[in-house]
């Protein structure tokens, strides 16, 4: 394995700082620096961007992002054991890496970042989906980020890019595809990680659209989609009864047969239903 910078191989870093991955923190470390650099490249040209990284661990992806020319990286790490290893990376890249010790679910990183901003992370498995939903549902759009390049369990990645008719098509696909271009750009086997997880992983790249793909009130769309997929085996006229007493009329107005099930309904049709329930100004 060829080096991507002057720092020691990750196995040595982990051994020196005794950084055994902790299941309670959703940690699975990538040790191949050529692979972390490849993931960083999926985020695009980083030379004019600040990059937000969540859960850097011993810094494998952090080093990939910096070696690929990121203007600056802000890394949020909950595990204090990783801070000395990350401090060594900061010394090797003066002024380009800032590390915040804390919980990414509780920290607002925007005061530490200068646009344009991209997000790139091997997300801890236990918070990955929640962070993605937060980034896809801000109060205002466009969001603070230009793109998200995120590693998930393969199953979650497939849910993000799923199409109508698929068994994994659901709320996550609607939220992601309504406001972003989403595609799987890299697949990784369990053996790429230490310790190896029980499932394969995949990297998803999402580019923020300047405006949503179809017009709809965000809260109404989210409410309708959640209700529809919470009872995905039911016909929509039953699954959405709690949304409106006149739901059959709204379904017909949106061009959706009331006997359809949620997994058969396109993003465009869900947006039409949201507009019928709450017309836009």
Structure write-up:
The structure is a single chain. With 281 residues, this protein is α/β, with parallel strands linked by helices. It folds into two domains: 199 residues, Rossmann fold; 60 residues, Helicase, Ruva Protein, domain 3 (Orthogonal Bundle). Helices cover 34% and strands 18% of the residues. The protein contains eleven helices and nine strands. A seven-stranded mixed beta sheet has the order 4-3-2-5-6-9-7, sandwiched between helices. Helix 3 links the parallel strand 2 and strand 3. Helix 2 crosses helix 3, helix 8 packs across helix 11 and helix 10 crosses helix 11. The chain is elongated, with a radius of gyration of 21 Å. The N and C termini lie far apart (58 Å). 41% of the residues are buried.
Summary of the model, kept short:
This protein is α/β, with parallel strands linked by helices and 281 residues long.
Features:
281 residues, alpha/beta, Rossmann fold, Helicase, Ruva Protein, domain 3, 2 domains, seven-stranded mixed beta sheet, two-stranded antiparallel sheet, 11 helices, 34% helix, 18% strand, elongated
């Amino acid at each position: 394995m060829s080096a991507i910078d002057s720092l020691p191989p990750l196995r040595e870093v982990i051994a020196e700082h005794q950084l055994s991955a902790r299941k309670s923190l959703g940690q699975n470390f990538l040790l191949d620096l050529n692979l972390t650099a490849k993931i960083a490249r999926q985020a695009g040209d980083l030379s004019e961007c600040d990059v937000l990284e969540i859960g850097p661990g011993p810094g494998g992806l952090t080093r990939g992002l910096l070696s690929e020319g990121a203007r600056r990286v802000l890394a949020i790490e909950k595990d204090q054991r990783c801070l000395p290893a990350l401090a060594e990376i900061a010394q090797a890249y003066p002024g380009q890496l800032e590390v915040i010790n804390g919980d990414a679910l509780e920290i607002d990183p925007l005061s530490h970042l200068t646009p344009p901003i991209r997000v790139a992370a091997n997300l801890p498995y236990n918070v990955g989906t929640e962070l993605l939903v937060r980034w896809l549902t801000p109060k205002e759009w466009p969001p603070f980020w230009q793109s998200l390049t995120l590693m998930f369990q393969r199953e979650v990645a497939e849910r993000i890019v799923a199409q109508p008719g698929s068994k994994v098509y659901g709320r996550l696909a609607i939220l992601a595809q309504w406001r972003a271009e989403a595609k799987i750009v890299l697949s990784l086997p369990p053996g790429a990680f230490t310790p190896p997880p029980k499932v394969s992983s995949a990297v998803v790249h999402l580019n923020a659209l300047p405006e949503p793909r179809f017009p709809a009130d965000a809260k109404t769309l989210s409410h309708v989609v959640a209700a529809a997929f919470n009872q995905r085996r039911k016909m929509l006229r039953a699954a959405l009864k709690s949304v409106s007493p006149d739901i059959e009329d709204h379904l017909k107005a949106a061009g959706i047969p009331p006997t359809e099930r949620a997994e058969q309904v396109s993003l465009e049709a869900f947006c039409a239903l949201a507009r019928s329930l709450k017309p836009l100004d």
